[in-house]
Amino acid sequence: MSMSFQGLTLCVKTFGCQMNKHDSERVLGTLEALGATPVDSFEEADMVVFLTCCVREAADTRLYGQVATMRTLPLRPDSPLAKRLIAIGGCIGQRDGRKLVDAMPHVDVVFGTHNLHALPSLLQAALDTGSSQVEVRDASASFPTDLPTDREQPWAAWLPITIGCNNFCSYCIVPYVRGREKSRPLEDIVSEAEGYVAEGVKEITLLGQNVNSYGRDLYGSPRFVDVLDAVAHTGIERIRFATSHPKDLSDEVIERFATLPSLMPALHLPVQSGSDRILKAMNRRYDAARYLDLVRKLREAKGDIALSTDIIVGFPGETEEDFMDTYRLVEAVGYHQVFTFIYSKREGTPAASMPDDTPREVIQGRFDRLVELVQRQAFEANQTERGRVVPVLVEGASKRDSSLLSGRSPKNQTVHAPVPAGCSAADLQGRIVDVRIDDAKTWYLQGSLA
Ligand code: SAH
Ligand code: SF4
Ligand code: F3S
């Protein structure tokens, strides 16, 4: 089949985690290579591709709503198509497959998380035949890395090192929609990283649902610390990684925060709960004491490392005492950022059949108390930056005020500073500049170029 999307405009709408964000860069890269032109809005787009998330119910509902509105949205006046092409991929595509077309017949293509590469031919077949195309695979034969990408930020790259997950936390749907964990060969990771360095990329984020278990399925069992060392060796300026499961965080990786200057002093270490009873029911395979011990070791290695975490409030059977264990753990750690989620029941996971009788208002009350603590902590954590000079990787003009530039500190804090006279935010994009911090808020730092 010959494929061309010349003359067609494309909008990719992405929900969920970095995995989907990275996939969306590959969808854009692949379809642009076949002639499609990216646009920002649904209105301008002849083709819309949704990369979906089903980790919580809210994301699920939003997708169905957005796809429904496509039915009545007119095409741009000079579109060569008679009808907008709509494709749904990502985790809901994987989970629901043909059911999506049955529920929403105006959907043209459904693809899963293991067959991104099939999207162009599915779109072409939908164009040629006018009938819906569904292809969802159970697992991928190999690590899908051969697709071109169009990066959102040319100076920062996401580099997947594993896909899938073997952990089966009892609340989580990810292992069912992303499949078993598969590691990418170390040589491939290194050659991709070298390519980025040659292109002038400043920051690489190594991605996986649990990067710490990298390599267990590969010949010779390379470890995650080997990936860190090899990527650091390429000379890349900044390295980050996500996500890191506490049960598999090794002493060697912790030590690298002290010894690898390019490894940024920030770590996302999801705790989920501070109650040992709930952690057990979640199948997390660590307890609060072990988590706090990791925090102690991390701070011994890198005094002012910025820690962030994920917490689920209202897991089935959570009591006030369980919640207070979580609250006290958060107080004890002092996080820079905490992503708080209300438990959302996912059909097919073990937690979905656990008795769950805590009233909604009680859970919401706990959630609000936690959010209040988290905001207070984030504000306090940022105060230590006042008066310091921090190297900031400039992302561009601030979205709220174009006279300010916006970028990231080593600890991944958002930093704003006035664009210096005689220069534009665009000139500084992708550069690392020193900023003297004179004000620190809950969610950003403010300063001026040093
Ligand atoms: N692999 C990553 C997280 C993937 S999902 C890790 O293990 O850390 C991102 C976050 O969503 C999780 O850390 C968890 O806090 C939250 N989450 C996952 N399933 C959820 C559910 N059913 N209800 C509420 N939050 C959930
Ligand atoms: Fe989900 Fe747990 Fe895997 Fe993270 S480690 S993706 S929370 S099952
Ligand atoms: Fe969502 Fe799928 Fe990521 S369910 S969190 S997009 S792996």
From TrEMBL:
<keyword id="KW-0411">Iron-sulfur</keyword>
<dbReference type="InterPro" id="IPR007197">
    <property type="entry name" value="rSAM"/>
</dbReference>
<dbReference type="InterPro" id="IPR006638">
    <property type="entry name" value="Elp3/MiaA/NifB-like_rSAM"/>
</dbReference>
<dbReference type="InterPro" id="IPR038135">
    <property type="entry name" value="Methylthiotransferase_N_sf"/>
</dbReference>
<dbReference type="GO" id="GO:0035597">
    <property type="term" value="F:tRNA-2-methylthio-N(6)-dimethylallyladenosine(37) synthase activity"/>
</dbReference>
<feature type="domain" description="MTTase N-terminal">
    <location>
        <begin position="8"/>
        <end position="128"/>
    </location>
</feature>
<dbReference type="InterPro" id="IPR005839">
    <property type="entry name" value="Methylthiotransferase"/>
</dbReference>
<dbReference type="InterPro" id="IPR013848">
    <property type="entry name" value="Methylthiotransferase_N"/>
</dbReference>
<protein>
    <recommendedName>
        <fullName>tRNA-2-methylthio-N(6)-dimethylallyladenosine synthase</fullName>
        <ecNumber>2.8.4.3</ecNumber>
    </recommendedName>
</protein>
<keyword id="KW-0408">Iron</keyword>
<feature type="binding site">
    <location>
        <position position="165"/>
    </location>
    <ligand>
        <name>[4Fe-4S] cluster 2</name>
    </ligand>
</feature>
<dbReference type="InterPro" id="IPR020612">
    <property type="entry name" value="Methylthiotransferase_CS"/>
</dbReference>
<feature type="domain" description="TRAM">
    <location>
        <begin position="383"/>
        <end position="450"/>
    </location>
</feature>
<dbReference type="InterPro" id="IPR002792">
    <property type="entry name" value="TRAM_dom"/>
</dbReference>
<dbReference type="Pfam" id="PF00919">
    <property type="entry name" value="UPF0004"/>
</dbReference>
<dbReference type="InterPro" id="IPR058240">
    <property type="entry name" value="rSAM_sf"/>
</dbReference>
<feature type="binding site">
    <location>
        <position position="17"/>
    </location>
    <ligand>
        <name>[4Fe-4S] cluster 1</name>
    </ligand>
</feature>
<comment type="similarity">
    <text>Belongs to the methylthiotransferase family. MiaB subfamily.</text>
</comment>
<feature type="binding site">
    <location>
        <position position="169"/>
    </location>
    <ligand>
        <name>[4Fe-4S] cluster 2</name>
    </ligand>
</feature>
<comment type="subunit">
    <text>Monomer.</text>
</comment>
<feature type="binding site">
    <location>
        <position position="53"/>
    </location>
    <ligand>
        <name>[4Fe-4S] cluster 1</name>
    </ligand>
</feature>
<feature type="domain" description="Radical SAM core">
    <location>
        <begin position="151"/>
        <end position="380"/>
    </location>
</feature>
<keyword id="KW-0479">Metal-binding</keyword>
<dbReference type="InterPro" id="IPR023404">
    <property type="entry name" value="rSAM_horseshoe"/>
</dbReference>
<dbReference type="InterPro" id="IPR006463">
    <property type="entry name" value="MiaB_methiolase"/>
</dbReference>
<dbReference type="Pfam" id="PF04055">
    <property type="entry name" value="Radical_SAM"/>
</dbReference>
<dbReference type="GO" id="GO:0005829">
    <property type="term" value="C:cytosol"/>
</dbReference>
<dbReference type="GO" id="GO:0051539">
    <property type="term" value="F:4 iron, 4 sulfur cluster binding"/>
</dbReference>
<keyword id="KW-0949">S-adenosyl-L-methionine</keyword>
<keyword id="KW-0004">4Fe-4S</keyword>
<dbReference type="Pfam" id="PF01938">
    <property type="entry name" value="TRAM"/>
</dbReference>
<keyword id="KW-0963">Cytoplasm</keyword>
<dbReference type="GO" id="GO:0046872">
    <property type="term" value="F:metal ion binding"/>
</dbReference>
<keyword id="KW-0819">tRNA processing</keyword>
<feature type="binding site">
    <location>
        <position position="172"/>
    </location>
    <ligand>
        <name>[4Fe-4S] cluster 2</name>
    </ligand>
</feature>
<feature type="binding site">
    <location>
        <position position="91"/>
    </location>
    <ligand>
        <name>[4Fe-4S] cluster 1</name>
    </ligand>
</feature>
<keyword id="KW-0808">Transferase</keyword>
<comment type="function">
    <text>Catalyzes the methylthiolation of N6-(dimethylallyl)adenosine (i(6)A), leading to the formation of 2-methylthio-N6-(dimethylallyl)adenosine (ms(2)i(6)A) at position 37 in tRNAs that read codons beginning with uridine.</text>
</comment>
